[in-house]
Amino acid sequence: AVPDPCQGVVCPAPAVPCRAAGRCRQDGQCFYAKHVDATPCDDGRADTGNDRCRAGVCVGVLLPETGSSLSKGAVAGICVGAFLAVLAIAALVGLAMHRRH
User: Fold this and answer.
1) Among 24, 32, 51, 84, which is disulfide-ready with 19 (CB 3.0 to 4.6 Å)?
2) pTM of the entire structure?
């Protein structure tokens, strides 16, 4: 009798979220089938949402950067830029008023 190459083989859990539980192939190796595209998954990243399997890989959509230090810095930059623009306009208006008198 030919020995079963899968006897005693235990396939570990898949290393990535978009793969099915392992099955032993006739060569004794574990095979992990891809989940169907659009299957919900978790890519493990906090900055993505609506994670879905795509070609066996979990892919998320980047979320808006609300509350992150980058977005706060960008807002601060916009505010400082706007303030400087107002100062420049005020200075030009002041200069024009000064020249009238």
Assistant:
1) 32
2) 0.55
